[in-house]
Structures are given as structure tokens and as C-alpha cells.
Amino acid sequence: MSRSNKMFGDIAFDLLKDLQRSSQTIPGFDDDGVRQVLEEIKAIFEENVAQASNYNSSGDRSLWPLLNYRHAALQRNKRCLLAYLYERMQRIKAMRWEFGPIIPSDIKPALCEPEVQFFNNYSKSLAAYMRSVGDGQGIDLTGNLRPPKSLYIEVRCVENYGKFELDDGEVVHLRKNSQHYLPRAQVEPLVRQGILQHIA
Amino acid sequence: MSTRESMSDSENVEQALNEHDMITEAVLADAYEEDGDDEDAEPITAQKVLEILETAWTNEMCAPELLQHQSDMLELMMSQVAHMEEQMKDLDKNDFRFVVHQMELERIRYIMASYLRCRLQKIEAFTQHIINQDATYDVADKRLSPEESKYAQEFATNVDEYFNKVATRYMPNQQRGEAEQRVVAPNLMSHVFLKANVAVSGVIVGVDDEEVDLTPGSQHIIPYQLVSDLIQRNQAKLI
Amino acid sequence: MMNYFPNYYSIEDIFVTQEKVECKVNTRLQRLGFLDAGAETEDLEPGRTINLPLWYIKELKVNNAYFTIAVPDIYKNVHKAVCEAETTHIELGRLHPYFYEFGRYLTPYDRNHVIGRIIFETLRQRVRHLLDISKNDGDTKHEHRLDNIESKLHEAGVRTNTLYINWLQMSGNHIRTSQLVEEHQKKRKRADRSDDEGDNETDTPTSKKRSTM
């Protein structure tokens, strides 16, 4: 524990504060912060174990308040750290729903290896679940996001996408700034991904 | 998290199936009997299945906790949708009926997807709580469908692994009770809007055992926990 | 759905419990001197006044022998306004970002039982006002006037109101680019632009419309 003005638990709290403050989709995993918190937890724990055994043998209660305080600090550290991971997990989950099963390449460096693994497992598990619904008939839950009002919608291409084949075999060329009138259900994923813009 | 859902119009989906020349009741009845072991399984209409799903959907959206799964109804509806799609292949795409039916299908699909998404959100939020709770229920009363149960287990394992690799394995021994402390549970005392389907007498509505009789169609604002059994027994629905 | 119900991972609750509370030390506390910023002693001396984080306070028994918890001035200060039913003018958010939650945690330690009454009355008086401003000024930011829970209520109110208006105008049904993707693209665009200044923002909508029906 550094003897600066930092109190027990402050580093752990900063992890959360930085995460909340960041405007990025997900800021880089704070390796260093996490390591420091884990070290603080370990240090508090070891000191407490040493003094607790002392207290047990001598029956001297005078250090009880200190043990108590440090115990609360240890729990606080754990809570902040796990809340940090939990909040990152929420954002990683959201990415699966918004971006699909592949992590965008410019976001990937922000994740640590266990987080990438979490994403992949989550993605696989979700896909397997969606396939299994209704005794194996399957349903895509990442689509059908809004109550349908009309079957066809007018869209404008935001970027050059290339050929897009509709369910009935018809092929449309999606070129930047071109406008189309297409079946809502089939183009919804492209609108969600920002390739098309729904204009009417 | 809640951005995934937009609470929606319970549009006249009823109408969707009303004029349905395409729905063949026989298909449904077959599917139903194939499935259930109970001899006195009544044939059920597609209309009825949709009504049940619709109610399950609004209840699920409004209830703080996960409600009982409806996989039988869902499965029936999905085969029905597939069946309708099959039949529609023979229709001219510019036929007015084609457009109407296509709309109906889209709407049903939306309801089913929205319903299942809502359940997944709860499963992910209250994973351990739901798993523990389901372990104490009889097979017939389980909240999770078999598919959801598998998903919940996988999710719990996945989260544990992530937490463990990054943090918990470096932490000193956990104390008793610490794991329980981390279990996230729904707030069952949150208030809900309720509409009585039938007359219910002697509903306890306050801490001091104050009782109230509900008349059919009457609406109330009340802490969820006090009426959760009415929802379960279909004596009331959430709105 | 608006439902404030803190759990173990709830960041808001962690923020509330990070707040400091003024306490008086009642008895010598060995080796806790580091809690007293103004002293160099190894032990914490009786009679000193120190600030302790709420996450520690809430683990203490109400009648613990070590510390006496002082009711923060902010609650005493609104007392007069509460009595005169004038709380809607208070810039509550400036007084304390977590006015209600913070107060709720301290209620058991308040021997005169005023905090509980104050926060209840304050909210009761202000809720009507909140409802009104949610309806009237959707976009105006009330930076320091609302406490955390109040701004959430306000947001929810504005959102519901917007949904309602959209619904009236039948305009709420556009599929949109998902929020995450949108933010992500903005970022990417900024990066692109610094790479090759210029030509990727030629937004000339071609009116060529193709029906694929």
C-alpha cells in the first residue's frame, strides 16, 4: 500500500470511474490497474491473517478495529474489481448483438485474452441456442428488432457494399448513395450494421 | 441493456390470424397430440396459440422475474409459420393476400423474437438465481425450457471462467456467504400494472394483510410479488 | 424499464458508497492513525474528527464504540425548505449527486431520525415538479438541479414522452443503425478523415430509385 494520499480501495474505484467516464465503445482493458488491485487485496489479506493469528493466541482485542477496517477494504476492492469486469462483460455482450459474431478489428485490441474468449463462447452459445429454439426449427433473435409496419422499406446505401441476393434469388447492387425499395426483413441486418439507411 | 427491446404496440395481431384461410387447424392438432402424452389433449387453434403467446409476451415484458417457459406453444407457432410460408410459395407475390399474409408472419416472428430476447436478458441478468430456483422445481414447473437451461448453464460457466482467469483465482480464499452475496436477483416488490381476467377474491395487497377483491377487467398498480401467483394461474395479466 | 435496485455489481451503488462521511473518534484505535489525514500518530486519537468512506461506515453497528457519525450538513440545510414546502427550488444535484441514496444509507446512524423524514418529504414535494419539467423541456439540461435518481426519472419521463409523441405521429418505426455501430463508425470516420482529407464526404444523393419488388 503506497503511503500517498490514496486510501485502501481507491485504485479499484478508479478502475470503475475511468470505465464510466470513457466515451469509447469499450476502453482498453486496464491490465495495470487490475494487477495493482489484486496486489492490494493480497497484501491486506496477508497482514490480516498474520495479525488475526496473533489475536487468537494472545486474546488481545486492541487490533480488532484495524482488522475490521482492513477486512471491509478487502471486500471493497473485490467488489470494485468484479464490478469492473461485470460492466465490461455487459459491453462485450452488447457487441455480439450489435456487430455480429466477429469482433471489429479496431475494438479487439481493447479486450484482454479471457475477454475475447468470453465473447467467442458467448457468441457460440447464443447461436446454438437460437438454432435450437422450437425443437430445432430455429429463430434469429438478433433480427426482428422492431414491430413491422410495412414489408418493404426504402433505403439508401451508405457505403459500397456490392451484390446482395434476396431470398427469391434476385440480386441487387448496393452502391454508395443509391436508393432501393427492399423487403424489410431481409435488409434489417444491413441497416443495423450501418450499411444501409432506412429513409422511408 | 434495455435498449435491445422496444416495448411495443400489441397491435391487432388477433386480426392477423382471424381471416386465415391458410391455417389448417388439423396440422396444429396433430402437432399437439404428437407432443403431449396426456390423452385428453384438446386440439388447439392457431388463434389460441397466438393469444397464449401474446399474453406470455406482455407478461414477460412487465414482470421483474422470469416466468414459466412456453416452449410447447412456441414450437407450435413456429411450425405454423413454416407451414404458412410453404403454402405462400404458390401465391403470386403481387396478390393482395400475399402481402397481408407476409405482414402477419412478420408480426408473429417479431413477437416470438421479442419474447425470447426478453427472457434471455433476464436469464443473463439473474443467471445463478434462476438456476438455483429451477433446481427446486418439479419438471412441470420449471421456468427454463430445456434449451434455455442449457444456455443458462453455459452462460454461468462462461462468466465464471472469465472472472476466474482475470481475477478470482488470484484472490485469497473466499469466505462462506460471499458467493451468495454476488447472486443478482430481481426486485419482486417492484410495482406492476395488473388487469384481472376473472374475479379474484381476498387478494392481500398490503403489509398489514389488507385484502381486496378484484373484479374481472379491473386494473391495479401493485407490487409484483403480491400477485405473481395470479399471473401464474392466468387469473390476471400484466399490462 | 426504470427500476433502481442495486446489486453487488451495481456501479451506481459503488459510487454512492464511495462518498465520505464525517465521524468523531470515540476511543483510541490502534494503528488506525493513517485514517486521519491531519495527524502523524500511529494510533487514531479520541476526539478527532475524520472522514470515512461509506463502504466502511455501513459495516459498522449503529451503536459501535469507535465512531459517532455526524449527520451531513446538506440534510440539515434543506430542513427549513422541507418545512416550508419549498424544495423544488433547491439545486439538489449541487448539494449532493446522490442526495437520496446517500441519505438512505445514513438513516440508521442518525439518532434524531431527521434524515429519513427529510429525504422522503423532499422527494414527495419534488416529484410533481419533475413530472412537469419532463413534459415541457425535453432537451434542456438541468445540470446541477437534479440528483442522480431524479435525472434518471427525468430521462425516463422525457423518453416516455418522446415515445408517446412519436407514436402519435407514427414515426417511431424506423429501423436505425444500432447505437454501438453508430458510435463506432463516427470514430472510424474521424480516423479516416485524418488519413485522407476530403473526398469521402461527398454526399450527393442520387435520386435513382430502383424498385426491386
UniProtKB/TrEMBL annotation, chain A:
Q: Name one GO cellular component term.
A: GINS complex
Q: Which residues form the GINS subunit domain?
A: 44-133
Indicate the segments forming the DNA replication complex GINS protein PSF1 C-terminal domain, all copies. Answer: 149-199
Q: Which PANTHER family match?
A: DNA REPLICATION COMPLEX GINS PROTEIN PSF1, PARTNER OF SLD5
Q: What is this protein's record name? A: DNA replication complex GINS protein PSF1
Subcellular localization: Nucleus
UniProt key word Nucleus: yes
Q: Which family does it belong to?
A: Belongs to the GINS1/PSF1 family.
Q: Which GO terms describe its biological process?
A: DNA strand elongation involved in mitotic DNA replication
From TrEMBL, chain B:
Q: Where is the GINS subunit domain?
A: 86-166
Source domain of life is Eukaryota
- List where in the cell it is found: Chromosome; Nucleus
UniProt feature, compositional bias: Polar residues: 1-15
Function, as annotated, reads:
The GINS complex plays an essential role in the initiation of DNA replication.
PANTHER family the record matches: DNA REPLICATION COMPLEX GINS PROTEIN SLD5, SLD5 PROTEIN
> What is the protein name stated in its UniProt record?
DNA replication complex GINS protein SLD5
Instruction: Provide the gene name from the record.
Output: LOC111595156
UniProtKB/TrEMBL annotation, chain C:
Q: Where is this region: Disordered?
A: 178-213
Q: Which biological process terms from the Gene Ontology are attached to this UniProt entry?
A: mitotic DNA replication initiation
User: Would the keyword Transport turn up in this protein's UniProt record?
Assistant: no
Residues of the GINS subunit domain: 85-168
What compartments host this protein? Nucleus
> What's the superkingdom here?
Eukaryota
Keyword Nucleotide-binding (UniProt): no
The residue ranges of the DNA replication complex GINS protein PSF3 N-terminal domain are: 9-60
Cellular component terms, GO, for this chain's entry?
GINS complex
InterPro entries (alphabetical): GINS_A (IPR021151), GINS_bundle-like_dom_sf (IPR036224), GINS_Psf3 (IPR010492), GINS_Psf3_sf (IPR038437), PSF3_N (IPR055221)
Protein keywords: DNA replication, Nucleus
Family, similarity comment: Belongs to the GINS3/PSF3 family.
State whether it acts alone or in a complex, and with which partners, per the record.
Answer: Component of the GINS complex.
User: What's its job?
Assistant: The GINS complex plays an essential role in the initiation of DNA replication. Required for correct functioning of the GINS complex, a complex that plays an essential role in the initiation of DNA replication, and progression of DNA replication forks. GINS complex is a core component of CDC45-MCM-GINS (CMG) helicase, the molecular machine that unwinds template DNA during replication, and around which the replisome is built.
Q: Can you say what this protein is called?
A: DNA replication complex GINS protein PSF3
Origin organism is: Drosophila hydei (Fruit fly)
